[in-house]
Design a protein that fits this description.
Oligomer: heterodimer
Strand content of chain B: under 5%
Number of helices of chain B: 11
Largest interface: A-B, 28 and 19 residues
CATH class of the largest domain in chain A: Alpha Beta
Strand order of the largest sheet of chain A: 6-7-8-3-9-10
CATH architecture of chain B: Orthogonal Bundle
Membrane topology (chain B): Multi-pass membrane protein
Pfam families (chain B): BPD_transp_1
CATH superfamily of chain B: MetI-like
Number of strands of chain A: 21
Helix content of chain B: over 70%
CATH topology of chain B: MetI-like fold
Distance between the termini of chain A: 57 Å
CATH architecture of the largest domain in chain A: 3-Layer(aba) Sandwich
GO cellular component, one term (chain B): plasma membrane
Radius of gyration of chain B: 23 Å
Strand content of chain A: 25-35%
CATH topology of the largest domain in chain A: Rossmann fold
Radius of gyration of chain A: 25 Å
Family (chain B): Belongs to the binding-protein-dependent transport system permease family. CysTW subfamily.
GO biological process, one term (chain B): transmembrane transport
Structural class of chain A: alpha+beta
Distance between the termini of chain B: 40 Å
Chain lengths: 401, 265
């Protein structure tokens, strides 16, 4: 059976230059191209290929539990729905269960309890080689005994696609990720970035329902990493495939994701788009993991007036919860002492100058407070300066421990 | 100045070691071409001992026995040892101390103890069941038992050297269990299998003690024949056999070296 024409068109290299792209522009400009995922199975007789065409698939998890040995709980009841065509990130510290969850999606690990459906089909008991799911491994796991071309063709060959079609698909994907001239190389002749792309291509060439990525960028240096972040995002938007991405890096998660699930101790702490998770963390763990340090217990409430170690602050439409979160970038530092609502007298104890902005550590009475100021040509307060911190009521967020 | 003297004496030591290792072999090779019967004086070049060799039915059958024994036992040991090596790899996280010792034991056990035990065992089995009459069959079994640990350890160490995620990548890329063996595991451990085969083969051809205790009247191998012949006095014919064996081993060594070079290139 021939490769579907729409697929051929989807995988071309004419693309927007990488540097003109930001995550937001991609997100708003391009719609998921679900029609590009049409894949005609090479071997329709084999059971896992019974659907001859496929769209991006949703993933439904219900009550997933996983325990290693007696004492280590990796997953403690995970319920989660990942929409079709979504770039979804599992975020958390090491040992939070994110990798275990990914491995359960891949079928490399079996859940002790719970159900998993991909594209509406229950795959809880289906072995990995019968799932239309492919993984980009952290170590890339390229086969050392095969050339790049043979690595790329491995999945298609295992599914029984005839050699000519296989070669055509491999050539196309190699061109798509701009590695066409490397296909004859051996794996150990490639750089880290090239291996990463080959690993991605080896998974993508199978046109799976879902692509799983296990910290695929963590072994790369910062520059290459941000370049590949953009590339990965572009690939996902072009193909409209469901991507499930695992990382412990909250910046990476925010840049890449449509939605993020923050995990800790095998439990999902919060699920939401990056802005929501960053600006309205569900609890103290999420807040700290997203990099927030300005968390203060609320000792008393009087309507919108909150009593905290910083003093009494007025909020606006603050929610429930006994913790106050103040994001450092919402603060303003005014020179000298100024009286007023939501104004706090402070002393600068530390300043980290970062060029585009400066990070401040301030002393307010007995407590410390962190603030970030954009470097907009105004005078940046120095260490030792007396300043007044100004907080806008609408920027105050409350949450529970 | 001092450094140069040291370097020169080290170079000298190197040549001395080489001479120590290879001079005896050179002497054997030289005398295999001796025109006279003497083991002391070289009187001229001749092919006569080699011609005598080719006409000697006993030697030819001993050679054939050696080859059949080496090839059959190496192939069996390769299959069984490979499975054991993979099993050791799969269960490497369990406590396997006693099992590893059991695997190593045949390697460290003196050949003569091993040979005598095998012989006693085969005699008992033969007495009770009528099977396992001493001969090529019992020799093959005995050789396989001492080759297995080498094969298992070589295969095991190759698997341990692999990125464990490769196994998962093969599963993830739609390979069924059978296809994983054919398209991933066997090709990946091929270099280990080749060197394990050559090692088993050499061990088998070299072995005298274990073969001696487990052989039957019809199944003399080359080493056994040589040992028997030497009892009647050293004939230059023996030198010719020894020289051929040296040549054969050298050729095998060169082939396996070329193989491993090509893997690395």
């Amino acid at each position: 059976m021939a490769l579907d024409a729409t697929t051929s068109d989807a995988i071309t290299t004419d693309s927007i230059p990488a540097d003109s792209i930001t995550a937001d522009s991609i997100r708003t400009e391009s719609k998921p191209m679900t029609d590009t995922l049409t894949l005609e199975a090479a071997d329709t007789s084999s059971t896992e290929m019974e659907e001859s065409t496929r769209d991006a698939s949703s993933i439904e998890m219900q009550g997933l539990h996983k325990r290693f040995g007696r004492n280590t709980v990796a997953l403690d009841g995970v319920d989660l729905v990942i929409e079709a065509g979504e770039f979804f990130t599992l975020l958390g510290p090491s040992g939070c269960g994110k990798t275990t969850l990914l491995r359960i999606l891949a079928g490399l690990e079996e859940a002790d309890a719970g159900r998993l459906a991909i594209g509406g089909r229950d795959v809880t008991e289906v072995p990995p080689h019968q799932r239309s799911v492919n993984t980009v491994f952290q170590s890339y796991a390229l086969f050392p005994h095969l050339s790049v071309r043979e690595n790329l063709a491995f999945g298609l060959k295992m599914r029984g696609m005839p050699p000519e079609q296989r070669e055509a698909r491999v050539a196309k994907i190699a061109e798509f990720i701009q590695l066409g001239d490397l296909v004859e190389r051996r794996v150990d002749q490639l750089s880290g970035g090239q291996r990463q792309r080959i690993a991605l291509a080896r998974a993508l060439v199978n046109e799976p329902d879902v692509l799983l990525l296990d910290e695929p960028l963590s072994a790369l240096d910062a520059g290459l990493r941000s370049q590949l972040q953009v590339e990965l995002l572009r690939v996902q938007k072009r193909l409209g495939m469901t991507f499930v991405f695992v990382t412990h890096d909250q910046d990476e998660a925010m840049v890449m994701s449509d939605r993020i699930a923050v995990l800790n101790g095998g439990v999902i702490q919060q699920v939401g788009p990056p802005r929501e998770v960053y600006e309205h963390p569900a609890n103290a763990f999420v807040a700290r993991f997203m990099g927030h340090d300005n968390l203060y217990p609320i000792s008393a409430r009087d309507g919108d007036r909150l009593t905290t170690p910083l003093g009494v602050l007025r909020g606006e439409a603050v929610g429930e919860g006994d913790l106050l979160l103040i994001r450092p970038e919402t603060l303003d530092l005014l020179p000298g002492e100024q009286q007023g609502d939501n104004r706090l007298p402070a002393t600068v104890t530390e300043r980290l100058y970062r060029g585009s902005h400066a990070e401040y550590r301030l002393e307010v009475g007995e407590t410390t407070l962190q603030a970030t100021l954009n470097n907009r040509g105004r005078r940046l307060p120095e260490v030792g300066d007396r300043v007044t911190v100004s907080v806008a009521p609408e920027d105050l967020v409350t949450l529970s421990e | 100045m001092r450094k140069r003297t040291l370097k020169r004496s080290l170079t000298g030591f190197w040549w001395f070691t080489l001479a120590f290792l290879y001079l005896p072999l050179a002497v054997v090779a030289l005398f295999s071409f001796n025109a006279s019967n003497s083991a002391a004086r070289f009187t001229g070049f001749s092919w006569r001992w080699y011609e005598r060799l080719l006409g000697n039915e006993e030697i030819l059958s001993a050679f054939a026995n050696s080859m059949v024994l080496a090839i059959v036992s190496s192939v069996i040991a390769l299959v069984v040892g490979c499975l054991i090596g993979y099993g050791m790899y799969r269960h490497r996280h369990r406590k396997l101390g006693w099992l590893i010792v059991l695997i190593y034991l045949p390697i460290v056990l003196p050949d003569i103890v091993f040979g005598i035990s095998e012989m006693a065992f085969f005699v008992q089995v033969h007495r009770l069941t009528g099977f396992l009459q001493p001969g090529l069959g019992t020799m093959i079994i005995a050789h396989v038992t001492f080759q297995i640990p080498f094969v298992a350890l070589i295969v095991y160490s190759r698997f341990v050297g692999l990125d464990p995620t490769l196994f998962e990548a093969a599963k993830d890329l739609y390979a069924t269990p059978t296809k994983r063996v054919i398209h991933f595991m066997l090709p990946t451990i091929k270099p280990a299998l080749i060197s394990a085969f050559f090692l088993s083969f050499t061990l088998s051809v070299d072995d005298f003690v274990i073969s001696f205790f487990t052989a039957g009247p019809e199944s003399a191998t080359l080493p056994i024949y040589i040992w028997g012949a030497i009892k009647k006095g050293v004939s230059p014919e023996i030198n010719a056999i020894a020289t051929l064996m040296i040549a054969a081993v050298a050729i095998v060594a060169v082939i396996s070296l070329i193989f491993s070079r090509r893997r690395q290139a």
